[in-house]
Amino acid sequence: MVRSETTAKKTGRTSLETRYFVSSAEPDQRSPALWQPLVRGHWGGVEIRNYWRREIASIWGEDRSRTRNPNALANLALLHNALLTLLPEHYPDVPLPEVKERLFSDPAGCLRVLRSK
Fold this sequence. Notes:
This protein has 117 residues and is mainly α.
């Protein structure tokens, strides 16, 4: 469990948040000082890796969508995530930027990948 306190600079308002993490380690195996860098490092890595993958593979241009319909945006995000999950199986030794180029010139290829499962 990690508790954090954040204060907004503009308003001076303070908020408290509690987050829970699951680990196979015994509770007394690490001290809080050893857990902190593990938790921060994990989430920092997740953010960096996922952000980069989503940006480099932004094949369908979610960011350019003009819709404000939350269901449409959620469905686009789900399709995008499914595609990112399946791409390594279909293009095992091809770098993601190259896969993006291939699929950009063949948008139906995205649908073929999604229908493959």
